[in-house]
Structures are given as C-alpha cells and as structure tokens.
Fold these 2 entries.
Entry 1:
Amino acid sequence: MISLDRLGIFIAIVDAGSLTAAAAVLGQSKAVVSFNLKQLEAELGVSLLTRSTRSLALTDVGRRFYEDCQRVLSEAHGAIETARQGQQGLRGTLRLTTTVEYGSRTVIPALIAFAAAHPQLQIQHSSSSSHEDLISGRYDLAIRMGSLNDSSYRAALIEPYAIWPVASPAYLASLPARDIASLPDLQRARWLAHSRLASPLRWEVQTPDGAAAFAAQDDAAIHSDSASALLGFALGGCGVALLPQWLVEADVRAGRLRRLLPEVVFPQQGVYAVYPNTQHIAEKVRAFIDFLRAFVGTPA
C-alpha cells in the first residue's frame, strides 16, 4: 500500500521544483526525498517526472497523478482532523483568503470572535483582489464576492447584497445637464470598471417599466481590480462606479457620493464561502462557514 507520506513528498517535489528545494521544505535529506520518489514510481509502475541536470518536469501521467494526490491528501487530512476534533475541539490551521474590503469589514471581526472560541486553532488569513487557486495555494476556503461561475469548487452563500451606481457631486456637476436622470444618461456616463469582471459594463436591470438591458456607451475610463480603488476614484470625481451597497452607503449618507437612479435595480450579488470540491469537508471549514453566516445574521 502506498503511504500518504510518500504522496506528500511527491507533491512537495512538484511544488518546489527540485529535489533539493523539496528536501529543504520537508526538513529531510535529498537522498531520502529521492528514495521516496523512486519507490513511489516503482510501486505505481510509471514515470511521474522527467529529470534533467537543471530541472524536473511532470509526465502526462504524473500531472494527472499530482492533481489526484492533492485531492486525496486534502480528504485524508480533513478526515483525520475531523476525527481528532470530535474529542478535542477545533485544532490545526484554518487558511483562508478574502478580498481586502469585505475581509476588513466583516471577515476579520468574525475571525477575532471565532479564534477566541477556538483557541487551539491557528488562523492564516490572506487579503487579495485576485481569485487565488485554492488547491495550489493550500487554502481551506475563500470568501468571494459577486456571481460564481467556477463549478470545480463548492460554495455556500454567506449573505446577499445590492450593488449601486454611484458618483460624486463634483463629477455630476461637471456634466452638461449637471445630473444623471435616466438610464440613457447613465449609459453615456464616464465609467469606472472592475477589471476582474468579464463584462463589467453590461447588466440586465429592473426598471419601473420592467426588465431592460444596460450597456455603457463607451469603454470604462478607468479599470481597477480593487473595489476600494474604484471607490477612491469615484470619490475623486473620476466618474460612475458600480459598487456594493455595504461599501458605499456611508459615503452616500454623508453626501460624498450620490446613488444614481435608485429606481433602477441591478442584479443582486452574493458573498460566498468557496472551498475545494472534496467528498469530505473538514470540520474547521464547516464550523467557520456556519459561524460566519450566523455572524452576519443569515438564517441557516
């Protein structure tokens, strides 16, 4: 029977890019790492890696086996953790990634309370505007915004939210009509767009007269991969941005921004907890998802 440790060594070799680097990561000698790789290939009866004096490369079989190993180890470690936690409470490490904005507003306060409730669990939190790959990044889960299209992961809705088109009084004052009073006006506006969205300026919206297709007349004047950056550009009078209600409502109340055409409703978005699509869900992941949903007040 092939050991899980041997699979872990193989994954470490691929991730590190060499036997020497993998040995350093694992705290083992290069000879031990090389022996385990050779034994694994012998037990499988296939070559997983091609070797040269300078590099290692996965064979076609090795590439598929690497992906399978990641899934198998994730499920095995999750099962082991769940068995242990049944008697000892949550232990180990919870690794998660969030956007900067929602992370600082909601997830970090929730993690403070969650960590206090589970003092033997270590937390590793990462903030990023990009969508990190959960498997290669070794993340247990990600908190993601908007609409999900990647079916290779599982997802649990944390809470829904509205998106509002907003602009500063200074930008509106610069317009010939000094206002945006209709959907065509909004389509002709100077737009600020989120670069991570496939079509940030095309939406199906609801108006008092029914459903309508919204499309900006011109390409965005400014693109950014950060909602907080788009908020800054909007506050600076650079144009119209479509942003989460929870991010802009304080500025709208204070008069620093104005919500445009409140009678036009853009599609509702969601905050999702996303995690690898494995048969076994680690108890720490399930526990934090339940905790976060309760923290924001979403019914189970």
Note: Residues 131 and 292 are 20 Å apart (CA to CA).
Entry 2:
Amino acid sequence: MADRPVTLLDKSEVLTGLFTVWDDLDELLRGLSEPDWRTPSALAGWDVQAVVSHIIGTESFLQGISPPAPDVDVSALQHVRNEIGVMNECWVRHLSQEPGATVLEKFREVTSTRRKVLDNMSVDDWNAVGPTPAGPDSYGRFMRIRVFDCWMHEQDIRIGLGRPSSDEDLTGPAAQLSLAEIETSMGFVVGKRAGAPDGSRVLFDLTGPLARQMRVRVDGRARLVDDFGGLDPTTTIRVDALQFTRLAGGRPLCPQRSQDIEFDGDEELAARIVEQLNFVI
C-alpha cells in the first residue's frame, strides 16, 4: 500500500483560526452566570461546563499533562466508548464541582500556554508526521482538527444557551477551516459509509453565510474532485452549511437556522448519505 499523502497546511492560517475560536469562546464564556454554566449543551450528556472541561483536557494532554484520577471507573460509563472518552471524562468529572469562573480561568491558562508553544513551533515540526485523530499526518493537520473540534464545541455551547452564531460569525476563519476539515471525509462518507455505486457524482451544495460546494466522484473509489468534467451530478444534497456541520458531527440541528434538506437526482442515495454523514468519533 502506498504511503498516505501528508497534509501540509499554512501555519499562520491554521493558528489564526485556532486562536480566533479560543478568543470567541473566551468572549462567550466570560459573560455567563453560574446557571448558564450548568445549562445542557447541544452535546448529549454534557452541560456547558463539561464541554469547556473537555477542551481544557485535550489542550492539557497536548501539553503532556496527565488527566486527573477519576472518582469512579469512567471506562464503565455507558457514554464512554474509547480511550479518548476515558480521558475526556476524567477532566469533566474533575472540574464538575468547580465554579464556572474557575473553569474559565483554567481554560485561559492552558490556551495561553498552547499559544506560546504553537507560535514558537518551527515549520519543520509543524509539518512533521505523527499521530492525529485522523491517522498519521502532519502536526498542522492535527491543529486544523483542533480548530474543527473547538469550533464545533463553541456551536454546541451556543445552541444550548440559545445564542447561535450570527451570519457574520459564520464567515470567520475557524468556521472555514472546520468545513475544510469536514470536506476531507466526504469521500469516505459517500463511498464507504453510504456505499455509493460506481459512476456516482455527488454534489454537496451548502447554503447560507458559509456557502460552498463539495464534489465527490465514485470511479473505482470515492474521492473529492474539483469538478465533474462537464457532467451533471447524479445526486445533489442542498442544506445550510452550519446544519451540514451539525449532521457531520452527529449533533442536533440549530433551531434558529433553516433545517430544510433538499435532494435532487438519486434521492435514495442522497438520503442514505445524509443518514451516514456522522463520521466524528
């Protein structure tokens, strides 16, 4: 099997997105009341405080900090499905009794440290291949996945609080990088998960402030393409771009945006693709 291609990404662009989403989270969280911190997020089983605790835990892990010892066997909990889930739950439980202000301070501490580390990282280290949630790839790709994860969690918090991102918010760099990260999995979703037959040409027509088009062609295998060579798509899925990210993350849709999903062409395949969109661990 040929080596997987390495994803090389512009360090400045990715870090702008990552630091922007951390700033946006800071601004959102600093105005929360204590009941707000305990409000259920859009992520099943976690309140706002738990989501922020998870982000703290992941960034702490990337700093080499071991998770705190849990008070119970978290691996036995129903919603914990893997080692990443175990680590997440250790941090969530550890910080669950702290006041929101303390959790926000810990978020600021770890992200401030991470900013310095990432700013000082050499381009060689940025491009170096290592483990990522998507398999072996560059550290830059890992950090784009961090943008995606943090941005998705910002939306989880906003939707839970009933304060969804505005159209202007959705044009920012973190949202754009998150969509770019999601796009890399669409060949897998169309080909492997949905089982699109050979010859399929699938167009994701995303609308709203994050509007873009993604194309997947199945020719022996499903892969992203820039165009269909003058041919029409055999299947079109038209949906608001934010809602598309919610589907890809296995999340409930945002109540304040259009929830319409339109199909053209092979509607049976389109419906199957939408059912299989959730690729997030």
Note: The mean pLDDT is 94.
